[in-house]
Amino acid sequence: MSRKVLLIEDEPNITEAIRFLLTREGWQVETHAEGTDAVDVIRATQPDLVILDVMLPGKSGMDILRDLRERDEMRDLPVLMLTARGQSRDRDMAEKAGVSRFMTKPFSNTEVLTAVRDLHAQASRT
Fold this sequence. Notes:
Layout: E1 4-8, H1 12-24, E2 28-32, H2 38-45, E3 49-53, H3 61-69, E4 79-83, H4 88-97, E5 101-104, H5 109-125
Parallel strand pairs: 1-2, 1-3, 3-4, 4-5
């Protein structure tokens, strides 16, 4: 079974930490740091799961998430959204836009692994 994650995050330290963590767990991790063409990259990569930062250069994670949910082929793609601002308004907006799970930075390695495992397991059952 494929286990591919696309991580869309513009902070290099976070990108490397998550890539290391998931690669060690057997995931294939692709990365991208730009919001403008993120939907095209997701379509081309065809990941099992997307980890998406809210604040990206070019286009926000919220806008990317809305674009994904408008496309039939990506409506059910699991999306774990990361944000440095843990305000409830951001969480509410993400949930309305169709996020699978929302996580506030900083987060622990265990939190990331648990979220990725849970989302992948849920998607595998559907």
